[in-house]
Design a protein that fits this description.
Layout lengths: L1 H19 L5 H20 L3 H5 L7 E3 L6 E3 L1 H14 L3 E14 L2 E12 L5 E12 L2 E11 L6 H5 L7 E7 L4 E9 L5 E10 L2 E13 L4 E8 L4 E9 L2 E9 L5 E12 L2 E11 L2 E2 L3 E8 L5
Antiparallel strand pairs: 1-2, 3-4, 4-5, 5-6, 7-8, 7-17, 8-9, 9-10, 10-11, 11-12, 12-13, 13-14, 14-15, 15-16, 15-17
């Protein structure tokens, strides 16, 4: 209860202070702070270290976000910006001022989002709070704090490493008359990869099924589920090591027996990948490995 009363009292004191400030025009002051922010961005994009330093109070303390070095005074701040420009080639800054609030007629707090683009590298975004102090009719920076905005990856982002599987792939063994065919595509919302497969012997489908590949946000891992035409089903966890994917599967066969295996998928190039199955177990019995086969991307029909 005391904390609520104290907070309310503090807010009232700020409002009272602003209301008693003779001639204080909050809208005009807010616009002046925003113009000062725009001037800061222009100086940064012009790579003018001296002009940037002039936006700070003479006694301001600046922390270099790249090195963590803390310096005091405009001359030292200018030197830090020179170091930043030397490290960040072709850096461009943009800010979005979200709010400006006044602690007093001469102290303003600016909140916003800063976006830094360095050449072709990924855009960096931070949320910042800047404290401005008005002195001799001009607004100057006293301090700035920043924190990175966490990047939230979509399920598509998580699965994108498997995007190379999109398309139709074939493997044929002329000696046994066996043909394996898989076709993979994105689901409509690109949250899942869907693979259809069939195994044919002498032009007769011996086994077919569907596999759904997804990002599991709880397990923080790629997982998949498979269902075949015999009535069997299973699930798997995908792990990448170097250039290979290890798919650890557990299954229930159509007759109720339990099975497990590790399937190893190795992309070769844009037109082929290798597949093999090891550590195969059915009902506790270890089975021989399935030798590595090469699947080739099918030619698109004319």
């Amino acid at each position: 209860m005391r904390s609520i009363v104290a907070a309310a009292t503090a807010v009232f004191a700020v409002v009272l202070c602003l209301s008693r400030a003779e001639g204080f025009d909050e809208a005009k002051a807010k616009e002046a702070v925003k113009k000062r922010a725009a001037s800061y961005v222009a100086a940064f994009n012009a790579r003018d270290a001296k002009a940037l330093a002039e936006h700070w109070l003479p006694e301001a303390v600046y922390i270099n976000p790249l090195s963590g070095v803390q310096v005091e005074g405009r001359e030292a701040i200018a030197e830090e910006f020179k170091a930043i420009f030397a490290e960040l080639k072709e850096a461009k800054l943009a800010v979005q001022v979200e709010a400006v609030r006044f602690i007093s007629p001469s102290v303003a707090v600016e909140d916003g989002v800063a976006r830094l683009q360095t050449g072709d590298e990924k855009l960096e975004e931070t949320r910042y709070t800047a404290v401005h102090v008005k002195r001799d009719g001009q607004w100057y920076l006293d301090r700035v704090t920043e924190e990175e905005i966490p990047v939230v990856l979509t399920h598509y982002d998580r699965l994108k490493e498997l995007e190379w599987m999109i398309g139709t792939w074939m493997e044929s063994d002329e000696g046994s008359g066996t043909r394996v065919k898989t076709t993979c595509q994105w689901s409509r919302n690109q949250n899942f990869l869907i693979r259809w497969f069939d195994v044919a012997v002498e032009d007769r489908i011996d086994l077919a099924g569907v596999q759904i590949i997804a990002w599991d946000p709880a397990a923080k891992q790629i997982r998949s589920w498979v269902f075949d035409t015999d009535g069997g089903f299973g699930e798997a966890r995908w792990t990448k090591k170097d250039d290979r994917w290890y798919v650890t599967t557990t299954s229930t066969l159509a007759d109720g027996r339990k099975a497990s295996a590790v399937n190893v998928i190795t992309p070769v190039d844009a037109r082929s990948f290798r597949w093999k199955s090891v550590n195969r177990i059915i009902d506790g019995q270890l089975l021989p490995n399935v030798d590595e086969v090469v699947l080739v991307r099918a030619e698109a029909p004319d």
